[in-house]
Amino acid sequence: MTGDEALFQFLLRMGDNTLILGHSVSEWCGKAPVLEEDIALANTALDLIGQTQFWLGLAGEVEGQGRSADDLAFLRDAWDFRNLLLVELPNGDFGQTLMRQFLFDAFQSVLLGRLKTSSDTRVAEIAAKASKEVAYHVERSADTVVGLGDGTEESHARMQAALDYLWPYVGEMFRGDDVDAAMVAAGIAPDPASLREEYDALVGNVLTEATLDIPKGTFSHKGGRTGYMHTEHLGHLLTSMQWLQRAYPGASW
Amino acid sequence: MAQAATDQIWDWLDQVPDPEIPVISLVDLGIIRGVEWQGDAVQITVTPTYSGCPATSVINLDIVSALNGHGIENVVLKQQISPPWTTDWLSDKGREKLEEYGIAPPRPAGGPARCPRCKGTDLERLSQFGSTPCKAAWRCRDCLEPFDYFKCI
After folding, report:
1. Which domains are delineated in chain A?
2. N or C: which end of chain B has fewer CB within 10 A?
3. A49 contacts in B (CB within 8 Å)?
């Protein structure tokens, strides 16, 4: 694997995370429980899709095959996606959506903080831009997790169920492979394992305040960021997200 | 025809309204980062407010059509994301106009100073996100009216 091939894979991981999560979150538009939350979710989704344009745009540039961010988003199939399994899991109820968002926002805020000093200035610039937006995302998702976790009996039970379901997907964030090793060697990105301590501290504080218990088990699903195996949910999501370009190839407006 | 001076072009861009908040101009918003002649083309450097701001493509179109209207045919747009846009770049004129329009201008303290309608100071935040990515929703407890606050970023 050459340096550019590893960088391409790394950029797909960044861009696919924000693309898949952004698309899922956008499905709440017009359906959230209250107007303010509807607007907040739509704005979060917009930020994520905007960040996707930067990450996948750069990925296409690095790949050098003339593929645009749109080509990468709409013309790849499930096995070519490199997102974390966490972000392709279903929206579920509002609590599950917000728990998924918080677990991702916390990771993203820690990671982007490190990427701001990347040796690749293009990566550092995108990270600097995105981290300002993610600071708002994580503040809001953390507040909501606390509000619902430490809320009514019903909301607490739902948030605990969401955490029990989603927690086994957190471990994948920190499992490095040869792509990560190449990024570390080039000074482009940190070793994912080195982010765990800061992540656990941030997430631990919020979940304690939310009166939620982190599941005991250490089992972790994996295979999304390496592309080894996605969940069944990704294909369904792509069917809806990519429908227009597949039905009317090259359509634009 | 002689090339327009860059100062003149800045003035023209200062007359192009932001598509979402038409009381302030693109220059007031601080997203025009450079105006430079390159041969017979003028290059306008633009930075996005938020990565996913849907107004970005409209803004680009408005810049090109405004300058075309002033006789500049060859306009090149350059997107620049570093340094990232900050509300510190909003002009003083822009801040005043925002408040007159009913949008509380951004403050480093992280919240509005007063209600843009009644100037009351007993305020509460309704949501961190508002009608556009750059705004949050607040309410004045004095006049009970909700209003937009331009978020600090």
Report:
1. 3-247 (1.20.1260.10)
2. N
3. 52
pTM beyond 0.80: the answer is yes
B51: contact with A, CB 8 A cutoff: yes
Residue to mutate among B20, B33, B51, with most A CBs inside 10 A, is: B51
CATH T-level topology, domain B6-87: GMP Synthetase; Chain A, domain 3 (3.30.300)
Contact B51 A136 (CB under 8 A): no
Query: How many CB atoms are closer than 10 A to CB A2?
Result: 8
Helices (H), chain A: 3-26, 35-63, 69-74, 85-88, 94-115, 121-149, 153-166, 178-185, 196-209, 232-241, 243-247
Is the pLDDT at A253 greater than 80? The verdict is: no
Flag whether residue B71 sits within 8 Å of chain A, measured between CB atoms.
Answer: no
Positions of CATH 3.30.300.130 in chain B: 6-87
CB contact (8 A) between residue A40 and residue B129: yes
Would you say the ipTM is above 0.90?
Answer: no
Give me the pLDDT at residue A77, please. Answer: 96
Torsion of CA A153, A156, A158, A164, to 10 degrees: -140
Asked whether residue B2 carries a pLDDT value surpassing 80, the answer given is no
Q: What is the per-residue pLDDT for B131? A: 80
Closest residue in A to B52 (Cα–Cα): A50
User: Which residue from A minimizes the CA distance to B133?
Assistant: A43
Strand partners, B77: B44
The verdict on A136 touching B (C-beta cutoff 8 Å) is yes
Residue B144 has pLDDT above 70, yes or no: yes
Q: What is the arithmetic mean of pLDDT over B18-33?
A: 93
Residues of chain A with Cβ-Cβ distance to B33 below 8 Å are none
A127 has a pLDDT exceeding 90: yes
